[in-house]
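Hello,

Our lab assistant flagged a job as stuck in the queue for most of the afternoon. It eventually completed. Since we weren't sure the result was trustworthy after the delay, we are filing this so someone can double-check. Below is the sequence as submitted and the structure that was eventually returned. Let us know if re-running is recommended.
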Amino acid sequence: MARLQDKYRQQIIPALKDKLGLHHDLAVPSLQKIIVNVGVTDDQHRDQAIKNTSDQISAITGQKPAHRVAKKSIATFKLRAGDPVGVSVTLRGRRMYLFLDKVISLVLPQVKDFQGLSLNSFDNQGNYNFGLTEQIIFPEINYDKIDKIRGLQITLVTTTKSKENAKELLTLLGLPFEKSPTN
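-- returned structure --
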């Protein structure tokens, strides 16, 4: 079992039950899924760029990504409906915890001038979004084989509908949030 998943079951569930005044383990907020999304904006050789991005995201997450296509044609972007525009992976269960553990312990410490993740990135449903500007900070990526540096968007979907409960859950899981002036 994943290290972070063990920590959630053994330490975080009892801590959140006490803090939130809950009586049952299933009422405790949990991480439901992680979505990793990468957009590809290359006008020329888009199919090759999609394949390269797909291979890189597959190496990072350990799961084959789904290709995303344009829904509408937009002439100014030289885009037709049905053209590939990116790749996306939805991680659940053990792979989700392994990926989050890797992001927390290996990837975020490598980000230059990292001051913590923004506290303003929670939505009203208790989910958290953050982006990374380059995929080369993941240890699985071979720097010599990348065609272009691309950013990726990571969405952490929780079972709670409260920003405060989601922040507490993600803090206990180890996400390094920025220090607010009141802390």
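-- support follow-up --
The delay was a queue issue, not a problem with the job. The result is valid. The longest strand covers residues 31-39. The chain has one domain: 30-163.
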